[in-house]
Design goal:
The structure holds two protein chains of two kinds.
Chain A: H1 6-26, H2 30-55, H3 59-89
Helix pairs in contact in A: 1-2, 2-3
Chain B: H1 3-24, H2 28-48, H3 52-77, H4 91-115, H5 126-129, H6 132-141, H7 144-165
Classes of the chains: A mainly alpha, B mainly alpha.
């Protein structure tokens, strides 16, 4: 079978997750912050599929399927919230959207 | 160093580079396009892992549906350039770098300790469990109830989106 060790997949997943964290912490555009969250979800999916393939257990892939369904719902709701915010405040800069900040 | 590992490194490098470009571009449309490249790379990695079903779903749902939604919203809001969202502070970069570096080191240490140097290969059943047939059988028998609950989640999301995106709340 394949000669690729499990470590490589998990490290790729960790690097992508870290890039997503950096994006969430540095970008101010709400839509790009949202895209970074999708990137983090994807990196976790990658490690789930990798462990599933290396252990010969299908549950990891089933969980990835449910994660994708929830991510689709989350993306739709989040984008609707961003549209509603933009309609009220004319901006997507998350530094200016601080109405919920104490 | 066989062909498979070289191919994996190529795809992984493309995925990482496109992710970095995604978080550094000023123009949100370019970010979306780089994220789509990243999702295609991940689909190829899923194929390397023999997960055919997940790879197809990745392209259909993520690269197809979700990213079109993002692109649609960006163009609807007309967020052409982000110059007025320019950063005013630099300490944010330092905090982000420290937090991200700490997370990466922590994950690397955890992976290094728990998997430490194991050079195992795929499970012999890996090619079989990734097929649409196997996952569909499992979804419709053992995971039937969660599968039906997923449809409720999608319905709730649909209703919520329509309410949120309406012109005014009544």
């Amino acid at each position: 079978m394949s000669g690729i060790p499990l470590n490589y997949f998990v490290f790729l997943s960790a690097i992508l997750f870290t890039i997503g964290v950096v994006g969430v912490l540095t970008r101010r555009n709400a839509i790009i912050v949202f895209m970074c969250i999708e990137l983090m979800l994807n990196s976790v999916n990658l490690s789930l599929v990798a462990f599933s393939a290396f252990h010969g257990n299908t549950r990891g892939q089933i969980l990835v399927f449910f994660v994708m369904a929830v991510a689709a719902a989350e993306a739709a709701v989040g984008l609707a919230i961003i549209i509603a915010l933009f309609r009220n405040k004319q901006t997507v800069n998350i530094d200016e959207i601080n109405i919920m900040k104490w | 160093m066989n062909v498979e590992i070289i191919f994996f490194f190529l795809v992984a490098a493309l995925a990482i580079v496109s992710a970095v470009f995604m978080i550094t571009r000023r123009n949100p449309v370019k970010s979306v396009l780089f994220l789509i490249v990243n999702f295609f790379c991940l689909a190829v990695v899923y194929l390397i892992l023999h997960a055919q079903f997940i790879a197809i779903i990745q392209i259909l749902v993520y690269a197809g549906a979700i990213m079109v939604l993002f692109l649609f919203v960006i163009m609807l809001l007309n967020l052409g350039d982000e110059s007025r969202l320019a950063e005013k502070t630099t300490y944010r970069y330092w905090i982000a770098a420290i937090a991200a570096g700490a997370a990466l080191v922590e994950i690397a240490l955890g992976v290094g300790v728990s998997l430490g140097g194991t050079h195992g290969s795929f499970h012999p059943a890996a090619a079989e469990i990734g097929t649409v047939e196997f996952i569909g059988r499992s979804l419709y028998s053992e995971y039937l109830f969660p599968f039906e609950v997923t449809s409720l989640i999608l319905l709730a999301a649909m209703v919520g989106v329509i309410v949120l995106a309406k012109k005014k709340f009544h």
